[in-house]
Design brief:
Elements (H helix, E strand, L loop, with lengths): L1 E2 L11 H13 L5 E2 L3 E5 L6 E4 L4 E3 L14 H5 L8 E2 L18 E5 L2 E3 L4 H15 L11 E6 L2 E7 L6 E6 L5 E7 L2 E8 L2 H13 L5 H5 L5 H6 L1
Parallel strand pairs: 1-2, 6-7
Antiparallel strand pairs: 3-4, 4-5, 7-8, 9-10, 10-13, 11-12, 12-13
Length: 232
């Protein structure tokens, strides 16, 4: 696995979450090359090698390339719609052009003082529902409730919230395979990464959606009654 950034998951998760998954993958025999770019692929007709930015040349049978995407805004551009890391909308899904609306991966919208795009199935479904209602005159704001998941080997990663602007994290570790990372900005809880910790995920998600922020000390303490935090 060749990762151009300094570490895996640098764009989406903390160093602590990255450490967990690095250990998981290397334990399954994956050779992870961080801080290393791909210079070129080599071979006649079919790929047989990969030349890396550090001068290493690897023999390969096939290559999976994941380099990210850019939102498809061509139609919006032709229509004169304002863009902002995608098709810019207000909280209702309305663009800068009357009677033109946007929802899903291409739409950027306000979220807790930021302008974001969410590339996820739940967002595409929930946002489209609200936008469709607004087209019919509902005049409702879309309030995003971000959540994501990934299954890797026998580990289920579940993420609630967005860690944008976090300044510290708290680790709640039940054992080597079950733990959660809680993201804070000051005293405010922003997001939770849960690895084989569905209870932490569900409680974290409900806390974030309710705007509640338990203390970092309470989260780190394994004796804390997590359900009680919802009533605080």
């Amino acid at each position: 696995l060749v990762e151009m950034a300094d570490r895996i998951l640098q764009r989406v998760a903390s160093a602590e979450t990255a450490d967990y998954f690095r250990k998981l993958h290397t334990g399954h025999g994956v050779d992870i090359r961080e801080g290393t770019g791909l210079d070129r692929l080599t071979g006649d007709n079919t790929v047989s090698g990969a030349a890396l930015s550090d001068g290493t040349e690897l023999d390969v049978d096939f290559v999976v390339v994941g380099v990210g995407i850019t939102p498809g805004t061509e139609l919006a551009e032709k229509a004169g719609v304002a863009l902002d890391n995608g098709v810019a909308t207000d909280a209702k899904g309305q663009t800068s052009v009357a009677n033109v609306w946007a929802a899903g991966d291409c739409a950027s919208f306000p979220y807790r003082g930021e302008t974001i795009r969410l590339e996820s199935v739940p967002n595409a479904i929930d946002q489209a529902d609200i936008v469709a209602q607004n087209i019919l005159g509902a005049d409702r704001d879309y309030v995003a409730k971000p959540w994501f998941w990934s299954d890797q080997y026998d580990v289920k990663l579940q993420i609630a919230g967005l860690n944008i602007g976090y300044d510290h994290v708290v680790t709640r570790k039940t054992d080597e395979t079950s733990q959660s990372i809680w993201y804070y900005r000051g005293d405010a809880l922003l997001a939770v990464d849960a690895m084989n910790a569905p209870r932490d995920y569900m409680i974290g998600k409900r806390l974030i959606e309710a705007g509640k922020s338990p203390s970092a000390e309470a989260i780190a303490d394994l004796s804390t009654d997590m359900k009680a935090l919802l009533k605080a």
